[in-house]
Amino acid sequence: MLALRPNCECCDKDLPPSAEDAMICSFECTFCVDCVDTKLPNNRCPNCGGNLASRPIRPANKLENNPPSSERVISDCPSVE
User: Fold this and answer.
1) Annotated region Disordered: where (predicted)?
2) Among 18, 13, 5, which Cα is nearest to 58's?
């Protein structure tokens, strides 16, 4: 089951389970679409090099028994110059 991490690893923006702008790689590294578009070249995860895709939204009625992660992760993301 997806962890549904609570934030963008680049800018630390909150990404709740209902966020439509959350992107993930196959290792569940999580980024907002703004960082993917502006900081991550070629739609690739800076951690593993895998592609990024929209994170599915877990139905609200499933969150009680399957809660999202509360662990915030921050990565070294490329800086835009």
Assistant:
1) 59-81
2) 18
Instruction: Give yes or no for a contact between 32 and 24, defined as CB atoms under 8 angstroms apart.
Output: no
Distance, CA of 45 to CA of 43 (rounded, Å)? 7
CATH 3.30.40 for domain 1-58, yes or no, is yes
For residue 57, count other CB atoms closer than 10 A to its CB. Answer: 13
Q: Report d(CA 43, CA 62) in Å as an integer.
A: 30
Domain boundaries, the chain: 1-58
What value does the mean pLDDT take over residues 4-21?
Answer: 97
Q: Which residues pair with 2 in a beta bridge?
A: none
Is a pLDDT exceeding 80 seen at residue 79? no
